[in-house]
Amino acid sequence: MKSETHQMSTPMAKPIRLGGVLYAADTPERNALRDFAQELQKRGWHVAGLVQELAYNTSGEKIGLDAIDIRTGEHLPLARPSKEDRENGTCGFDLGRLSETSRVLRDAMQAPADLLIVEKFGEREQDGRGLADEIVAAAMQGIPTLVAVPASALETWNEFSGRLGTLLPHDMDSLWHWWPKWNLYKELTLGIPDQRPVQIVIGEKAILVEGPNGCGVTANPSGQAHPNFTTEKTLKDLARDNQNRADILAHALGIAATLAHHNRYDLCGPDTSGLDHFKGKDDSVLVLGHFPKDRAYSNNSHTIAPDNAVQHLYDHAYDGVILPSHTFREGALATLLRLKGTAQTVMVGPETPLCPNLFDYGINVLSGRIITDATKAADLVTAGASPKELKPVSRYITLNQ
Fold first, then answer.
1. Structure pTM?
2. How far apart are CA 118 and CA 47, in angstroms?
């Protein structure tokens, strides 16, 4: 940057999640940023920021450029070139609108937003003006921020960001790859209704939560039954604890509530096992966990204990990975998905959340369980059954990307 005010080399409390999304005149997916923002908004994420759009009059003639507030859809005119502007080759940029556009970003930082988008890193930002201060402030605050950067301004962007950001191609796959994997836990809670659970049963070996449309079961980490357990929490409130590692009971209830929402009674899919995804193939496949030894995972498979998976994936690359569903419960799933690279990934087991949104986080096949009789399942849990022992009241389905 031209001014030290904008440099990002000073210590910060939160890690910077800044992405420079490169584009050129021939970039095919020029709407990728907007499409990404709209998809996240549809899922319930708080996305804010600005995108740009050419403005036209009622006759279809181009009259200038608008900034669009992603959160509200409000159009803010940025440029309305006059005849004199066009004759002189000037853009007719309205400097008075800068305060309005910067307000959008400042409001997003106050909330704060889950994602901030700025389109684009234009001439004013390159000179340290425009929205430069807001981009720096958002990054320093730790808000995930994506900025559209013209390829011609790459070196200026690198200087501006102190090379602390990530450079990304302007396409949806790259944007999803950049989106933090650990967000999958919150992703799974966003659509859960704010309704009381139908029932909660805490047995010695398992915890069952039934929602209005499905039933979830997970292991009881405490090993203690709570026959008279009650709570005022809604299904959504319970699910929000699916990352609460400080309270093992709340965490387990969070996992079961999450599964109760996604593994719905009416969910349909083939009853084939995800373990057969690589069957008969020559792909190198890493199998984590203790699945049946007689299974033909692939012609070139390697099995290790899940405890060794993180270091192993640091050191090795595979065409495919088979993950047991307890990696979701144990909080290891996001790390494993980040480390597995481009490997085709199958998640298998009774605690697999059957949510297609997980495909965007790097899972290709979801193979899990749906409880078919919640009343009998509750009786079994009360009697001391483990999650694995609920097979008689379950059916299994597989969802493919």
1. 0.88
2. 11
